[in-house]
Write a structure and sequence with these properties.
Structural class: alpha/beta
Number of strands: 8
Number of helices: 10
Strand order of the largest sheet: 1-2-8-7-3-4
Strand content: 15-25%
Number of domains: 1
Radius of gyration: 17 Å
Distance between the termini: 46 Å
Helix content: 40-55%
Order of helices and strands: HHEEHHEHHEEHEHEHEH
Largest sheet: 6 strands, mixed
Shape: globular
Length: 242
């Protein structure tokens, strides 16, 4: 109900840029340039958690990019999903490389908790992933969303936790739903999230996918990951680039 209400109010209330507040546009040219103007880059957090797949990011998490992600996630600016999905699609494309005979790209969103989805009225990462898959298809790359991960136990709010505490909080928290392995075997999985902080969420997602039993297992070495944004230092400096 809350998500439906936000969709309706977005049509009737005055529109302002989610990045800077400029009226009469949901995304102004200047803020759009911060989101889409850079080249997606390989990034790593410091310290890097064990099992983290190769991650590409579209932009640094600062200024307009930070404001846009928060507006979409926390303030229900759902119309920004298209622009954020376009940025995520660029990061996916940078990491996945050219298409192959292994099938379509399968964007696997890191799941939010039921409590967070209920509080926000929507699942921001899944919404951005759907927009990214549509953007990839428009550009000629077969892609779809495979929401095969779920939380198998409650986790604490990650806000305010350090890298070690986040890893402990998420250890063993995710699993692939029944039948998810067969879906993943039909293409090239790419883990996706809106934001990379410590990398604990993506590392746990990779562990869960890697534990898919039988011939459906992808193996974490084949996994790629993509995010809209990462800390500015990781995006700009790339000290651990290989």
């Amino acid at each position: 109900m809350r998500g439906w209400w936000r969709e309706i109010t977005g049509l009737v209330l005055p529109v302002a840029c989610g990045g800077c507040g400029r009226p009469r546009t949901e995304l102004c040219e200047e803020c759009g340039a911060q989101l889409h103007g850079g080249v997606p880059r390989r990034v790593r957090p410091e310290p890097e958690p064990a099992g983290l797949p190769a991650v590409h990011a579209a932009a640094g998490y600062e200024n307009a990019v930070r404001a846009l992600l928060l507006a979409h996630k926390e303030r229900g600016a759902l119309g920004l999903a298209g622009a954020l999905g376009k940025a995520l699609a660029g990061a996916v494309r940078a990491g996945a490389g050219p298409s192959s005979e292994r099938g379509p790209l399968l964007l696997v969103p890191v799941p939010s908790s039921r409590r967070a989805v209920a509080a926000r009225g929507h699942d921001p990462t899944r919404r951005i992933a759907l927009a990214a898959a549509a953007e990839l298809r428009r550009a000629g790359t077969p892609a779809r969303v495979a929401a095969v991960l779920r939380q198998r136990r409650p986790v604490a709010d990650q806000a305010g936790l350090g890298a070690g505490a986040r890893r402990a909080n998420l250890a063993g928290a995710l699993e692939v739903v029944a039948g998810g392995g067969r879906l993943l075997a039909a293409g090239r999985p790419v883990l996706v999230d809106d934001l990379l902080t410590t990398g604990a969420s993506l590392a746990e997602a990779a562990r869960a996918v890697d534990r898919t039993d039988g011939p459906d297992s992808t193996g974490s070495g084949a996994l790629q990951a993509a995010v809209v944004a990462v800390s500015p230092s990781a995006f700009e400096i790339n000290r651990n680039w290989k």
